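RECORD TYPE: inverse folding
INPUT: structure tokens
STRUCTURE:
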């Protein structure tokens, strides 16, 4: 049955000599796999050039609930990824974000609030002309709210420990090993306020940003089952070293 839906491309993997399997997070169907051509075709209604990580698409799809791999009949961009494709910093952030979404967003049911957050995030990353060095930090903390494990920072007091396992601050050191020391906990309490509007006001050195990313990923790992390694994080560390 034909349906119209918006979608955000996450990644593509080869399927055979002619086709790839492209994972797309869609507005109407959640996480969905599509069969896409590996080669450019003349007059194609869904050209290969559209399916870059984080491409935002308007699609006409042939969708059947009992079919694992769906088909795209027509596709066009909602907005072009110009700076994201050519700016090495934005490109590294984009690859990291696309991989992160593919690892943590597993819903095959629609979640329009989550989709709107992801679409807005891609739009902000593409359009911002200011520094985007902290974009991925704002994204990761923002995404956690939609995944159901937003940290509770309301009771922070100087000298507290952030309990990664339970998602809140505590005056005493937790009995388990999953916590941040008071200095890192203070930084984490400040980061809870970060968003796309104020992210330029946060100043971090390369090693500080690397530590923060690792702490947030550790938090994700504790709250999501089977959260596998994010390979593109190494590229991100190289960009911001």
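DESIGNED SEQUENCE:
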């Amino acid at each position: 049955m034909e349906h119209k839906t918006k979608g955000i491309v996450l990644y593509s993997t080869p399927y055979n000599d002619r086709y790839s399997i492209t994972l797309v997070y869609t507005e109407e169907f959640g996480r969905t796999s599509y069969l896409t051509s590996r080669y450019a075709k003349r007059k194609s209604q869904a050209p290969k050039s559209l399916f870059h990580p984080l491409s935002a698409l308007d699609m006409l799809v042939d969708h059947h609930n009992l079919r694992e791999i769906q088909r795209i009949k027509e596709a066009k961009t909602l907005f072009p990824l110009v700076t994201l494709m050519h700016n090495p910093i934005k490109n590294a952030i984009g690859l990291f974000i696309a991989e992160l979404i593919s690892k943590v967003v597993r819903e095959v049911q629609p979640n329009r609030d989550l989709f709107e957050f992801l679409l807005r995030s891609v739009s902000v990353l593409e359009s911002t002309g200011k520094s985007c060095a902290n974009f991925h930090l704002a994204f990761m903390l923002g995404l956690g709210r939609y995944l159901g494990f937003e940290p509770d920072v309301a009771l922070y007091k100087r000298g507290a420990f952030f309990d990664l396992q339970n998602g809140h601050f505590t005056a005493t050191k937790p009995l388990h090993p999953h916590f941040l020391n008071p200095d890192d906990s203070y930084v984490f309490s400040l980061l809870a306020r970060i968003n796309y509007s104020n992210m330029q006001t946060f100043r971090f050195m390369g090693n500080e940003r690397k530590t923060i990313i690792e702490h947030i990923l550790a938090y994700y790992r504790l709250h999501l089952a089977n959260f596998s390694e994010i390979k593109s994080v190494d590229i991100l560390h190289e960009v911001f070293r």
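NOTES: Residues 187 and 212 are 8 Å apart (CA to CA).
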